[in-house]
Amino acid sequence: MAERTITLRRARTNNLADLDVDVPRNRLVVFVGVSGSGKSSLVFDTIAAEAGYQLNETFPPFARNRLPKWTRPDVEHIEGLTPVVVIDQRRIGGGNARSTVGTVTDTWTYLRLLFSRLSRPHLGESNHFSFNEPAGMCPTCSGLGEVVVSAVERFLDLDRSLADGAIRLPGFGNGGYWYSQYADIGTFDADTPLRQWSRAEREALLYGGRAAAKLGRKPPKEYEGVVERFERIYLHTSDSLSERKQDTIRRFTKAETCPECAGDRLNKAARTATVLDHTIGEMPRLEITELAGLVRTITSARVAPVVAALTARLDAMITIGLGYLTLSRATTTLSGGESQRIKTVKHLGYSLTEMTYVVDEPTVGLHPTDVESVIELLERLRDSGNNVLVVEHDPAVMAHADQVIEIGPDAGAGGGQLVFQGTFAQLRDAGTPTGRALARHRPLKLAPRPATGHFTVAGADRNNLRHLTVRFPTGVLTVLTGVAGSGKSSLADELLAQHDATVIDQKPVSTNRRSTPITYTGIAPAIRKLFARHNHVPAGLFSANSEGACPDCKGLGVIYTDLAFMDGQEVVCETCHGRRFTPEVLAHTVNGLSIADVDDLTVGQSIVQLPDEGIARALRQLTAVGLGYLCLGQSLSTLSGGECQRVKIAKELRQATRPTTYVLDEPTTGLHMNDIDTLLHVLDSLVEQDHTVVVIEHNLDVIRQADWLIDLGPGPGRHGGTVLFEGHVADYTGHPTPTCQALAHTESETRSPAGH
Ligand code: ADP
Ligand code: ADP
Ligand code: ZN
Ligand code: ZN
User: Which end of the chain has the least Cβ crowding within 10 Å, N or C?
Assistant: First the structure.
């Protein structure tokens, strides 16, 4: 008989503390716990990693190289695994400009099939409608829909003369390789600012050719204008480009809609054939809801299976609240939450069972009213016979779980244990960090802080915005709300375009693996001095590039082996076992800790155990944003998006010298209810330093604490884009809008004495 659970014994990945747990199969299981407690270490780094690793082992080595690489987890015993599918929030398609909502959901393939069977005139095979294939692609843009052209307006500084560096391109300045081709040919006046030249002279400089011939002074025969030369060297070349050249291209070119196909990506024949009076360029630009209605009117029996498959996919997208998107939308412009839901649609179409779906915070980017449809989606995955494991902080999702598993009790070394396993109702009485947080309730802000002034975003009509004029109060916390797709990000982008403001996003703090809290806060010299003081030896001894360093790995702790054409390997140095220093240096201690032990201290422990006020002061900026659980030696590249964002807030708290406007997009992502308190304190600290804070947020606890609320809607896409409410959150009552109803709903729920 098949085992009914996924069984783990003595899991030790990251902070997991010899964890034993039995996860029920064919159930919707939600993993909860404070941020950094070990949920991801269990679900992603242990269960998914082992399943992925074992599955890879069943493939021949050649195929294995093309599969995602899994690091085998540290766990003594694990059984009951099934093939795993990870649905995370990584953006789809990477930087691939050709990837659209249509291509990643396969709907574009079905649409092409429809056109190849039904189009007028008839063109034949479906590759005639594919922009990825020569038979269908627009010859001008190779199917990209965009062409890269010189951004000529950036080439010249009109206030300078050639001799002063009027040509901004590298290599064209005075003394540069190309300079004499312009300054020394006798055609141009090298000492007069370009603004004082005639238009014809400037044209000749840029474009050569006929413009140059028209000048009385005849340029040399083989004269090449600056634009011509730039395009020959940088754009019309098949040489592989160095990083520097690519950077130059980024600076001096721009993407423009292809002049031939106007962005439809297809050649003329494919562009003009129609089905139901729509071209294949027009159909993907319809909203999915509208497209589904249109496709349903196709009655031809010949294509019935295609129509059925296409409408099933389109309907699935509508169900999960993405009906406002279009198939032509580039996946690179989707938000993380939208990307994740699109990935889910793909799997709903499959009939595989006994899979393990591992889902990372599916409610990100979702208004409370949209969360219901996501829950439905997860339940459908389960009901088709799969294991569904979800890491989530939203109580609405926990409430639908067959079982809730809490990892904790605290973050980092204070977590990694199983603290609760049972139903949601039991969790509310469990007295665990999550159980207690569920019982608590954050009230509406009744005394909002007064604004110090305001600024206006005027005439905003980006994407779906309906020519809005919106006032933002300064010196307070403003929350921007509305269902997904209502226009919040568009309004925030418009704010950034019209005013001086800083985005605090969730992108990595540093891509350098050697960047740690120590390097980030700049306390390395202070630590070395502390050790020197306590042991009466020179501070230089504790530097990883001094004579105190392990001679074999030169203080790196690892040895890098280059394996020619295979991936390079990093192995822990056998001499120092990764401790980076000689035994003599390691014998010097502070409070019983060696210099290598310092790496394993958390930020919070360090403040207590390293007796130095300078070090403590620098580290407190991290505890202030709730990151006291990070280890000093932990690579910042291991931080989650939310953690990166808080590191950046810490930096602004320390560095910003004048009042600044900050814009944050869903800062509660990845945060446990307890950590949301910390976040609110941090945002308050920004406001107390006279800064203006604007956050896009769905979390009701944050919305309730707003000094000012701007609610957009009512619906997504063209059903949104208007302002529904501007004012104090306590005054937002009695409106039939999604946000107002969500606020009222939770208010009444918590006022009733028994929550369960
Ligand atoms: P959660 O998912 O509950 O927020 P994680 O499993 O991501 O927690 O992290 C648990 C602990 O393990 C944290 O202290 C975190 O800093 C640490 N950690 C996570 N990933 C790594 C890693 N790759 N290397 C070292 N420590 C890690
Ligand atoms: P929100 O932030 O409220 O979720 P957005 O401002 O991201 O909403 O989107 C508002 C509308 O504009 C949606 O219909 C969305 O599909 C559309 N949209 C957003 N970004 C783009 C883009 N880069 N190109 C085309 N449409 C976009
Ligand atoms: Zn084209
Ligand atoms: Zn070594």
Answer: N
